[in-house]
Specification:
Elements: H1 12-31, H2 35-48, E1 52-53, H3 54-59, E2 69-74, E3 78-83, E4 94-99, E5 104-115, E6 118-126, E7 139-146, E8 152-157, H4 177-180, H5 184-187, E9 195-198, H6 209-222, E10 232-238, E11 243-245, E12 251-254, H7 257-271, E13 281-286, H8 303-315, H9 320-328, E14 331-335, E15 338-339, E16 361-364, E17 368-369, H10 380-392, E18 397-399, E19 409-410, H11 414-418, E20 423-428, E21 430-431, E22 439-442, H12 443-459
Parallel strand pairs: 1-2, 4-13, 4-14, 14-20, 15-21, 16-18
Antiparallel strand pairs: 2-3, 3-13, 5-6, 5-10, 6-9, 7-8, 7-10, 11-12, 12-22, 16-20, 17-19
Helix pairs in contact: 1-7, 1-12, 7-12, 8-9
The structure holds manganese (II) ion (2 copies).
Length: about 450
């Protein structure tokens, strides 16, 4: 039912568009390896596309009118883009949402130590990872070190060709007889994810000379001392760029497709928008989804609601009921990656309700686990509207569940936005090897995702 290979429908022009969008996406992936970097990159793209900072509009006491384009950044980790529509905001916005945090390994607050001639950073992983996948990989270090005097040092080491990289070691096969018989979850334990960062002692130093040398390099290069790790956010991610995958270059292998492969086209649909829309349009790129949408930058915080209130104020003048009506009457595609059907692991999927690579954007009426627990479960009426919009715009789309019932599951931000009463459905692009250091997506699905977002912004009512 309804599944067609999207590639078969492309003429030469469409194939060119697929490739052009893929290039823009790969550039976003390479420049945005963390939520902070994604936000910084999004600001650049937004300003180039004529979006202004909402906080600046507020500070100047200006008003906004239909057609105006603004963005707002929250704590450097979330970004929201808006294009003001002709209709009053209280009739509801058309919202695209996705997350820009990805599974990774974070550096602990007291991380640096030396053991037998090697210096290490101790870590605590972020999000759901198979820990054994992260050893023996070239890794890079991205983030900020905040000093007591208020200066913020930005760090990105391991991406340039002449940068060093970092690595977590694995036990040699020759001595792994016991290790190989352990369950995969126990092969590499959380506290064994220790990042090798140095191996050369500082001359004329009696103890911990390798650690002392690393500290000297950090002091010389960044002006930071050991205690500054306490107020740092350093994220360890796979080093290197996203690449075309396959003889036919039909796919992209890269870090962080979850969920930047939805976040980028959601944002691009607004960046590329021409003219004045009927409804106010919005894209929200959020943080902390991978650990439950918690904290002041997670979707469960009120930054989005507060921003809509601020926007309402500069468009219509403040009206508490108007803000609540805006949220309640909105339509949203909450996008997060779908589990792509993997023939190597066919047993965990129910094929006719699985997301197939190359068959377009996925809609998930519900996600969750153990009897839909934690899911949003979109209304059938809304699902029908979305089907109709997609078919009218010739978008390749499919429906899917996250694997067989009772095999596992997962959550998204959809249920959080649905709390306002807005119509929300989970949608997203199929990924293979989700949460692995390198994940796989189809360029056709990325393109259909973009087409889907444009059609939704135009057509949702
Ligand atoms: Mn996700
Ligand atoms: Mn995820």
């Amino acid at each position: 039912m309804y599944k067609k290979n999207a590639w078969e429908g492309y003429n030469k022009t469409a194939l060119k568009q697929v490739e052009a969008l893929s290039k823009r996406y790969v550039s976003f992936l390479n420049n945005g390896k963390t939520e902070r970097e994604c936000v910084a990159e999004a600001v650049k793209l937004a300003e180039a596309a004529g979006f202004r900072d909402l906080d600046e509009v507020i500070a100047k006491g200006e008003k906004l009118k239909a057609g105006d384009r603004v963005y707002r950044v929250w704590m450097k980790k979330d970004i929201m883009l808006f294009i003001i529509g002709k209709e009053p905001m209280s009739k509801g916005m058309n919202i695209l949402g996705a997350h820009i945090d990805s599974p990774r390994i974070d550096v602990k607050q007291n991380p640096l130590y030396e053991d037998e001639g090697l210096a290490y950073l101790d870590t605590h992983y972020y999000g759901g990872i198979k820990k054994y996948q992260w050893v023996t990989q070239p890794l890079s270090l991205h983030g900020v070190i905040c000093k007591k005097d208020g200066t913020v040092v930005t760090v990105a080491i391991g991406e340039k060709d002449d940068d060093p990289v970092f690595c977590i070691s694995d036990l040699l096969i020759h001595l792994s007889a016991d290790l190989m018989s352990k369950p995969a979850k126990d092969v590499i334990e959380g506290d064994a994810l220790n990042l090798i960062v140095g191996g050369m002692p500082l001359k004329d130093t009696e103890s911990n000379a390798v650690k002392a040398n690393v500290l000297k390099i950090l002091a010389d290069t960044y002006g930071v001392e050991e205690e500054d790790f306490i107020s740092a956010e350093l994220e360890i991610v796979p080093a290197g760029k996203a690449r075309d995958l396959g003889f036919d270059r039909s796919m992209i292998l890269g870090y962080g497709h979850d969920d930047r492969v939805c976040a980028f086209p959601s944002m691009a649909a607004l960046l590329d928008w021409k003219g004045v829309p009927e409804a106010t349009l919005c894209a929200v790129l959020t943080d902390k989804e991978e650990i439950g949408s918690v904290g002041a930058t997670g979707m469960a915080a009120t930054y989005f609601e507060n921003t809509v209130a601020e926007l309402y104020n500069v468009v219509h003048g403040y009206d508490a009921l108007g803000v609540m009506r805006t949220l309640q009457n909105s339509r949203m595609l909450s996008s997060d990656v779908s589990a792509g059907y993997d023939p190597n692991f066919a047993g965990v999927f129910e094929k006719k309700n699985a997301a197939i690579l190359g068959q377009g954007i996925c809609f998930n009426k519900f996600t969750g686990s153990r009897g839909k627990s934690g899911s949003n479960d979109a209304n059938a009426e809304y699902m029908a509207q979305v089907r109709s919009i997609m078919d009218d715009a010739s978008v390749a789309w499919q429906t899917a569940e996250l694997g067989k019932v009772d095999v596992g599951g997962g959550g998204t931000i959809a249920y959080i936005c649905a709390k306002y009463g807005m119509s929300v459905i989970d949608s997203g692009i199929a990924v293979l090897s989700m949460h692995a250091p390198y994940e796989i997506i189809s360029k056709a699905d990325l393109y259909e995702g973009y087409k889907c977002y444009v059609a939704f912004l135009k057509g949702a009512k």
